[in-house]
Design a protein that fits this description.
Strand 10, helix 7 (213-217) and strand 11 form a beta-alpha-beta unit. The chain has an 8-stranded parallel beta barrel, surrounded by 6 helices. It has a 3-stranded antiparallel β-sheet with strand order 6-5-8, with no helix packed on it. The protein has helices at 21-38, 59-75, 90-100, 125-134, 159-168, 188-197, 213-217, 241-257, and strands at residues 2-7, 42-46, 80-84, 104-107, 113-116, 119-122, 141-146, 151-153, 174-177, 202-204, 222-225. By secondary structure, it is α/β, with parallel strands linked by helices. The model has no long low-confidence stretch (mean pLDDT 95). The protein has one domain (2-257): Aldolase class I (TIM Barrel, Alpha-Beta Barrel). Helix 1 (21-38) packs across helix 8 (241-257) and helix 2 (59-75) crosses helix 3. The longest helix has 18 residues, at 21-38.
């Protein structure tokens, strides 16, 4: 599974906001079309430009992100669609997913608790899964990070044990492994340990490049990529068509052998 990330510009209400929601939606739809034509299997829409993030999104963020998600849904031609509401608003992500007909949500802290630049962020798996059932959205998958980037544990704990909890107790459908920060590569040994610990698919969710795909293919079931699709190789900004096509071709070659 190859998933491309659409980094939305700052949404209305966020500190650096400049564009109205309708213009952001047009930009998001353009990125979706590029990803689809390049051969990606899925896209994730996230409010990347809203930093500094809130633990839970406010109403204008949810509204603007829904507008963008609907535009991406229409432009993505039936490809799988995911929603990630930063920093960790699973409730908002589920609500948007239901409204936009999305297939999954990404939850950075689904179980346990992490120290982040937003302070202490606690997983709310029980509430999230109960809400999913109440919304009649049990077909919306939960893609959950383990030892997520830009965070630290309250107390040391083996990452494979965390991964097992995310699957067995958090009922995640996919487990995500990241490096320490946006665009930073994953530790291969940690990735392999997580894959051995769980039975659900494990995706690399940061730092993948064309050059690293061959090594990752033997230890992961899929890739989520954002930074490497930008013209400058840095997160944010529009998806570059040349880079997107090159990455998708390299992914098919590497994972066909993996």
């Amino acid at each position: 599974m190859l998933t491309g990330v659409i980094h939305l510009p700052p949404l209305p209400g966020s500190p650096r906001a400049e564009l109205p929601a309708r213009e952001i939606a047009k930009l998001a739809a353009r990125d979706a079309r590029v990803l689809v034509s390049s051969g990606f299997d899925a896209v994730i829409v996230e409010n990347f430009g809203d930093a500094p993030f809130q633990k839970l999104a406010d109403k204008v963020t949810v509204s603007a992100l829904t507008v963008a998600a609907l535009a991406v849904r229409e432009a993505s031609l039936g490809k799988r669609l995911g929603i990630n509401v930063l920093r960790n608003d699973a409730e908002a992500a589920l609500a948007i997913a239901v409204a936009a007909g999305a297939d999954f949500v990404r939850v950075n802290v689904h179980t346990g608790a992490r120290v982040t630049d937003q302070g202490l962020v606690e997983g709310r798996a029980g509430e999230t899964l109960r809400l999913r059932r109440a919304l009649g959205a049990t077909d919306v998958g939960i893609w959950a990070d383990v030892d997520v980037k830009h965070s630290a544990p309250l107390t040391p704990r083996a990452v494979p044990d965390e991964a097992q909890d995310v699957e067995a107790r958090g009922l995640a459908s996919v487990v995500l492994v990241t490096g320490e920060g946006t665009g930073r590569p994953v530790d291969l040994a940690r990735l392999e340990a997580v894959r051995r610990a769980v039975t659900v698919p494990v995706y690399v969710a940061s730092g993948a490049t064309v050059d690293s795909l061959s090594a990752l293919a033997g230890a992961a079931d899929g890739i989520i990529v954002g930074s490497a699709l930008r013209a400058d190789g840095r997160a944010g900004g529009p998806v570059d068509e040349v880079r997107a096509k090159s990455f998708a071709e390299a992914f098919r070659r590497a994972f066909a052998k993996g």
